[in-house]
Every structure is written in C-alpha cells, then in structure tokens.
Amino acid sequence: MSWQELLLELTLMPLLAFVIGLAMVLMMRRIAAQIQRRVGPPLLQPIYDIVKLYSKQTQISHGFIHELGIMMAVGGYIAAEALLPVPGMDGLADKGGLITLIYFLMVPTLGMALGVGQCANPNGSIGISRALTAMLAYDIPFVIVVFGVAFHYQTTNLAEIAAIQQAHGVSGWGMMEMPLLALAALFALQGMMGKQPFEVYIAPAEIATGPMVEMSGKFMGGLFVMQSFQYYTAGVLYTILFLGGGENWLTFLPKIFAVVAIPMTIAMLFPRFRTEDLVRLMWKWPVMAGLLGLAFVMN
Questions:
Q1: 265 contacts 112 by C-beta, under 8 angstroms
Q2: Which of 80, 165, 241, 260 is the most exposed place for a label (fewest CB within 10 A)?
Q3: Are 146 and 98 in contact (CB under 8 A)?
Q4: What is the mean pLDDT of residues 204-216?
C-alpha cells in the first residue's frame, strides 16, 4: 500500500466512525424513547446538538490543561479507529494490534480526568473518581478477554483475527468457539460505554452530571463527539473479535448496530448501579466467565 492510500484510509476511517457513531446515538435515544413511551428525536437531532453546542459561547475555560484533556478524550478514540479494520480498510491494524488498542481506549477517560481535574469543582472530582474506578472495574475482564482471544488465534492483529473467522464461516466465529469470553467481553464493553446501568460517574440526581458540570459550549460538544466514537468503537471491536468482522458493509453494519443496541436495550430496564455494585459485578461474573473461557482456550 502506498502512503497516499494509507493517508486516505486514515482520513476516512475516523470520518466513517463519526457518522456511524452519530447514527448509533440517534438509535439509542429512539430506543430509550420507545421504552419510556416518549416520542423520539428527529433524524438529524445529533447533528443539531453538535452544531448547537459548538455555536454556543464557551463560558468557562480553566486553561490549557482543561482544553488538552478534552482533546485527549476525543483524540484517543480517533487514534483507536486507525487500528480497527473495517471492510475495505485495514488502516494500521497490522502495525498496532490489540495491545496498542487497549492503551488507546484508556486515553479518553484519562483525558477527561485531566481536563476536569483543572476545574476544582467537587462534583466534577467525584464524577471523575467514579469514572476511573469504573475503568479499573471493566478493564480487568477486558484484559482477560483480550489475552484469551490473542492466545486462541495466536495473533494480536485484528485484521488477521477477522480473516481467520471469515475463512471458517459462522461456526468459526469467536462467539461460537469462545462463548464464555464473548459473554465476558459483552459485560466489559457495556461498562466501557458508560451507559445504563453503568453511568454512575454522571448520576445527575446525585452529583449534578459529574465530569460535565464544568463543561459548556465546545467542551460539551467534544464530549458528545467522544460518545459517538465510543459507541462505534465498542460495536466494531466486539464484532471483529467474536462475530467474524465483516466482508462487506452490508453484513458489517447490522452486526455493529446490534452489538450496541441489544445489550443497551436490556440494560435500560435496570436501575443505575452504585460504584461499589459496579465493581463487584464486573469483578465477579465477567471475570469468572473470562477466566473459565481462558482455561478452555488454553487446554
């Protein structure tokens, strides 16, 4: 591949992630509206929200570190998209792999913590402490899953992992060969998305939206953009690891939308977990399923 083709892929991959992520945000808001017997938002509402947030005057900026933190929160996901192979584009998947991707997925939460830490607002500090605790909770089962998948396929290259599954058909999907790891990964990705019932770091009734309390205008717009990347990344990563990736976009898109929609729809029926409940849940069932799945894979 020439450097021009690589540059084109590295430009298109985040753009596609952003557009598809916005569609996922709209889908989740409409699902929530149906469950709550409300009229959902119109088709272009996510775009309206972003334009509105970025057009507002930013009332408060706490300096360079505050702004750098938001750039890290969005930039971590943009960098991660280059490592997630999609139909027709592999990007840097053969140069980075799962290990590098794990580090990139930690950057957004750490960036948000860095930015909010400059605000000196107790509500923001409480929210960030909860977000970092949640990250520690879901990262343990996630790392177990990544190790198990890498051991099973003897590679950390996501493009190779998807190709191996596609070569064997549906019976060769990771979900079929490693069902316990697939279950553990679903729990971990659910926590990673930070939505119901794992949204304790926001908790508007308790800590006035936590990390978002000092965010307005472009900062809130940045977090909205980050959310769209977050949904897309979770759906694509799970699809590559356990659903055979996608040979074309017609088979790929339904998978990634289902990965985000189905568990989130079920989760909306449950109340928000407290921080200690979240840690207890993540370190109990997903870790147990992941360790059992790892034991089966290594036999």
A1: no
A2: 165
A3: yes
A4: 67
pLDDT, tens digit, for every residue of 284-294? Answer: 999 999 999 99
How far apart are the C-alpha atoms of 57 and 77, rounded to whole Å?
25
How many Å apart are CA 277 and CA 87, to the nearest integer? 39
What pTM does this model have? 0.92
Residues β-bridged to residue 18 = none
HEC assignment per residue over 41-86 = CCCCHHHHHHHHHHHCCCCCCCCHHHHHHHHHHHHHHHHHHCCCCE
Tokens 């591949």 correspond to what residue?
Answer: 1
Rounded CA separation 22/36 (Å):
21
CA distance 290 to 299: 14
Q: What are phi and psi of 29, to 5 degrees?
A: -70, -35
Question: Which of 111, 145, 146 has its CA nearest to residue 131?
Answer: 111
Using CA of residue 123, residue 232, residue 2, residue 104, what is the dihedral sign?
A: positive
Query: Over the stretch 217-268, which tens digit does the pLDDT of each residue have?
Result: 788 888 889 989 999 999 999 999 999 998 899 999 999 999 999 888 877 7
Q: Taking each helix axis from N to C terminus, what angle separates 64-81 and 3-35, rounded to the nearest 10 degrees?
A: 100
| DSSP code per residue over 149-170 | HHHHHT---HHHHHHHHHHT-G
